[in-house]
Known about the structure:
The chain is globular and about 45 Å long. The strands form two sheets. Strands 3-4-5 form a three-stranded antiparallel β-sheet. The chain has a two-stranded antiparallel sheet with strand order 1-2. The two termini are about 15 Å apart. The longest helix is centred in the middle third of the chain and has 14 residues, at about 55-70. The protein has helices spanning about 5-15, 20-25, 40-45, 55-70; strands spanning about 30-35, 50, 70-85, 90-100, 105-115. By secondary structure, the chain is of the alpha+beta class. A hairpin with a 5-residue loop joins strand 3 (about 70-85) and strand 4 (about 90-100). Helix 2 (about 20-25) packs antiparallel against helix 4.
Amino acid sequence: MSLSPTEVVSKLLSNPTDRSTAESLVSPTATYVSLNYSNPDLQKLMPYTGTHTAEGPSAILYTFTKVNEQWATESFEIQTLFGDGGENVAVFGKFTYRSRIVGRKCTIHGGYFGDE
Length: 116
């Protein structure tokens, strides 16, 4: 039995640095966009941001591993996760991180929109 797109995203976000989970859920040719499509200034600070074209699960593993090196997750609360019945999924929540470098806390209220 295959998972729905919302189930895939939910399962992936529950453990985004687990190789077997990512490889079982993400196509090897998937493109992943982290924070934005392209911002060279941001990439100087956070090299994992931007578009990872056709990098599949390795892009997700790289991004979340690098995020965890720089930021400690204090809370990751998915408040709403839904799909349109097709491939598109939206996730909204409240995410709190603390910088491992300067110790400052950052809370993001945001969402993710995507497709397969």
